[in-house]
Amino acid sequence: MIVTTTPTVEGRPVQQYLGVVTGEVIVGANMFRDLFASIRDIVGGRSGSYEDVLARARMQALDEMKQFAAGMGGNAVVGVDLDYEVLGANGSMLMVSATGTAVVV
């Protein structure tokens, strides 16, 4: 499955537009990960644990979007947009959503 942020796939004209597809993942923050991330903020450096969670959530959202596209008969998703949103009373959850247009190329 081809997934691209561009509106077309170079050299592969769109034969059919199938509709908008999305994939959404909500992950909760872990208390211990938050504690270690706070310590890293004080001493400097990157928070690898948060980066791992974010990467996994992004891949899951993209995979879900691709599954919906395949279910509609698509072999590509164009115009993909990734959005990140903090949710929950204390910002304790993160939502990653992937949206695009399922097409046949």
TrEMBL record:
<dbReference type="InterPro" id="IPR002765">
    <property type="entry name" value="UPF0145_YbjQ-like"/>
</dbReference>
<dbReference type="Pfam" id="PF01906">
    <property type="entry name" value="YbjQ_1"/>
</dbReference>
<comment type="similarity">
    <text>Belongs to the UPF0145 family.</text>
</comment>
<dbReference type="InterPro" id="IPR035439">
    <property type="entry name" value="UPF0145_dom_sf"/>
</dbReference>
<protein>
    <recommendedName>
        <fullName>UPF0145 protein FRF71_04390</fullName>
    </recommendedName>
</protein>
